[in-house]
Amino acid sequence: MKAETTVDRRAQIRQLLETNNVVSSQQLADRFQVSLMTIYRDLDNLQEQGIAKRQHGGAILANRFVSARLRGKRANENLDAKRAIGRYAARHLVNPDDDAIIISAGSTTLEFVRQLPDVPINVMANSLEALSILGTHTHTNLYALGGELRKDVMAFGGAMTHENLKQCHFAKAFIGVDGIDMESGFTSTNEQTARISRLMGEHAEQVYILTDSSKFDQKSFRTIFQFDAVDAIITNSGVPDRYKDFLKEHNVALIEVDKASEE
């Protein structure tokens, strides 16, 4: 089977890595009907992105790369921390003076949604589950960021979503991420998710990242933001010290939530 383009071939190699954790250079050359030198360049490219780690005869999935498959497995992990983060953000970062806020899809942002007060502000979200929860509010003005429903994450995305978002402006954006890395910034396992989250941030006066500390020193497929686009990170204890220093240097506030204090 011959990939039509370099981008297509590399995307397929990445998928094979995510599925099998290891690939053989010779087997890839045979599969895609290209030379070994072409495969070496592909693997070098994936290594530069932090996706693959080259080894003799092929490559393995880089330990620090968070795949979509692994992201799904992690959705129910660290729930206590995610709930505490959500409670803190809902209690301290949302008030009736906010004209409008927007919330990205994600497991931590969903815990934030569960704790949101029923106050008369405009709230927009692209997660179907978040919209369902907020639909029970009496005073909140709820807006769905429509478009194509991505059934893998039950959230809206695509060109229509992007166009809808471009017409809106928000006081605050609350964004979930799959990884935080000093070089790659804030990342997502999915291109559409990254683009939508980026647009949310661009149309908000303040950007808050809601994520548990396990996402630090991890990176995924696509960058959402660099650090200069973010105002604060709300997380739990366990952030590596070097990241605390790094965030201070980049003027990003770090709020580490104590689970007990938010119960």
User: Radius of gyration, Cα only, in angstroms?
Assistant: 20 Å
Strand content bin: 15-25%
CATH topology of the largest domain: Rossmann fold
Overall pLDDT score: 88
Coarse structural class: alpha/beta
How many strands, which pairing sense, and closed or not: the largest β-sheet? 7 strands, parallel
Overall geometric form: globular
Helix content: 25-40%
Describe the strand arrangement of the main beta sheet, using strand numbers. Answer: 6-5-4-9-12-14-15
CATH-derived architecture of the largest domain: 3-Layer(aba) Sandwich
Which spans have pLDDT < 50 for at least 5 consecutive residues?
Answer: none
Pfam family, one: DeoRC
Keywords: Transcription, Transcription regulation
Organism: Suttonella ornithocola
InterPro entries: Carb_Metab_HTH_regulators, DeoR-like_C, DeoR_HTH, NagB/RpiA_transferase-like, WH-like_DNA-bd_sf, WH_DNA-bd_sf
Short structural description:
The chain has 263 residues and is of the alpha/beta class. Helices cover 39% and strands 24% of the residues. This is HTH-type transcriptional repressor glcR.
